[in-house]
Amino acid sequence: MNHFDVSPVNDLTADLLFNLPAVQYVEGLTQDFPRRPSKTYLLYFKHFPKFMVGDIQGMAHAADLLYLFDAGDLDVRKLVPFPIDPNNWGPEETALKYKYMHMISEFVKTGNPNKGVSGLSTCDWPPFDPQRRSYLQFAEYPEVKNDLKGDRVRLWRQQIPMWIKQYPIDEASPNM
């Protein structure tokens, strides 16, 4: 398994707990678009930290906090309950940390994260709107993309409900 492979169980969990709710949330915040311009930005932190060891492959929940705060090793272990090896934190991780900290602090100060991104990369991150559905895929080289996990979001929102209607579960069935 290379570091870009993620298990189907992790994908399922990420969809149900993070991806689908995040997309639904930003859609709700931008429902008045274009009448009211969007000030909502969607970010997908796609990075595979070298300090994560064991079975965790990819950006685990709350691991982005290591890029946002100056936390020591003991604090990190309290914040991120995953096996880590702080000795694997290298220059790439430090550079990414400063990009992330700068971008988030710029967003907090101004409401627009682009000053934090444009000075450190070549992307222009537009606010989310229901038509373009833009988001920032944040990694060593940030990239603006559209329709976060679109196929999987459509699976959960359209295909699975359709299947449930087509193939209802018979509660009286002895096979259950």
Automatic annotation (TrEMBL):
The record's section on Gene3D superfamilies has:
alpha/beta hydrolase
Q: Where is the Carboxylesterase type B domain?
A: 9-156
The source's domain of life comes to: Eukaryota
Supply the Pfam families for this chain: COesterase
Which InterPro entries does its entry note?
Answer: AB_hydrolase_fold, CarbesteraseB, Neuroligin/BSAL
State the similarity comment.
Belongs to the type-B carboxylesterase/lipase family.
User: Under which name does UniProt file this protein?
Assistant: Neuroligin-3-like
Source organism per UniProt: Aplysia californica (California sea hare)
Gene that this sequence comes from: LOC106011053
